[in-house]
C-alpha cells in the first residue's frame, strides 16, 4: 500500500516537472498553403478545356475511319424456308406496298 502511494506521488511530481506545451500546433489546411486560388482555378480550367479538345479530336479520328462490317454469311437454303405464307401476305407486315393504285 505504501509503495502505491509513493508511486502515485512520484508520477504526479514527474508530470509537474515535464515541460508543458503552450498550445496545440496550428492545423494547416491546403487552403492556407500559400497558393493563389485564382491561379489554381485557371490552371484546372485550362486542363479541362485541353482534355475536352483532345477527347473530341480523338473521337473524330476514330469515328472518321469507319468500321469493318465483315463478310456476309453464306446464303444457306435452310435458313429461309417458308412452308406457308404469313397471315398478312408475302410482302411483309411493315413494308410499303407500292402498286396499289397510287
Nutshell version of this structure?
By secondary structure, the protein is mainly α. The chain has helices at 2-17, 37-64.
Describe the structure.
With 102 residues, the protein is an all-alpha fold. The chain has two helices and no strands. The mean pLDDT is 76.
* Separation, N- and C-terminal Cα atoms: 118 Å
Number of strands: 0
The total count of helices amounts to 2
Strand content: under 5%
Given the helix and strand composition, which structural class is it?
mainly alpha
Largest sheet entry: none
Secondary-structure element series: HH
Specify the helix fraction band.
Answer: 40-55%
- How would you sum up the global shape? elongated
* Gyration radius, in Å: 42 Å
Average residue-wise pLDDT: 76
Question: Which helices and strands occur, and which strands form pairs?
Answer:
Elements: H1 2-17, H2 37-64
Keywords:
102 residues, mainly alpha, 2 helices, 43% helix, elongated
